[in-house]
Amino acid sequence: MSGDSEDPFSHPIFGMAGAGGPFGMRFSTSGGRRCGSMQGMSSSSKPRSYERDLVCTLEELYTGTTKKMKIGRTRFHNGRPVKEDNVVTVDVKAGWKEGTKITFSGEGGQETPNGPPGDLIFVVKCKPHSRFTRDGSHLIYKVPVPLLKALVGFTVPVTTLDNRTLRVKVDQVVNPKYRKVVPGEGMPISKKPGEKGDLIIEFDIIFPRTLSDDQKTKLKEILANS
């Protein structure tokens, strides 16, 4: 994770060239003293939020995990900007979806010496998985299956995200649109503790490249009345 790469001295606030110099300050004289007033700046204005990606594996979003994130930020000390590292702990809840936002109030950068720091917001991003595709709270698992097995039935072994092995029996004739649903073996539902979505198995039927004349004849006899 990279921190805020913005150079604090390149911010427009350091480049203002008003009649009174930097920060848009205007000066007046009174009794021989020069007094300054800040123009167009208010410490009560809402500070900018800082968003960073929180990259998780599908396994981490299935089981939940804890991540320590080091983020660079700019803070002012004695009126001078200082770049520093900030380490925050994120408790990733089982079932969180991509796009979930976690806000740490006041843990972001500071843009002005007297202004409040902004919020630090993490946005969940999920790495692509080699076996599963997530669809909301459901998991999609695609299986190649030879035509013979698609016709007579077979058993699909599935290794889950928490390393259990399911043996899913398929005894229907599998056509290209057929999907086998295994209830309760999908992703946890973060807002409903203890509940999960479904595991949905899709099939890619593998047809033989060639058939002999004898095989074709036998298939015609077998499938004639189907």
UniProtKB/TrEMBL annotation:
S-adenosyl-L-methionine keyword on record: no
GO molecular function: protein-folding chaperone binding; unfolded protein binding
Domain Chaperone DnaJ C-terminal: from-to ranges: 51-208
Gene3D superfamilies on file: Urease metallochaperone UreE, N-terminal domain
CC terms in the record's Gene Ontology section: cytosol
Protein keywords: Chaperone
Stretches the record annotates as Disordered: 28-49
Pfam families to which the protein is assigned, alphabetical: DnaJ_C (PF01556)
GO biological process entries: protein folding
PANTHER family according to UniProt: DNAJ HOMOLOG SUBFAMILY B MEMBER 5 (PTHR24078:SF553), DNAJ HOMOLOG SUBFAMILY C MEMBER (PTHR24078)
Protein name: Chaperone DnaJ C-terminal domain-containing protein
Taxonomic source organism: Eimeria tenella (Coccidian parasite)
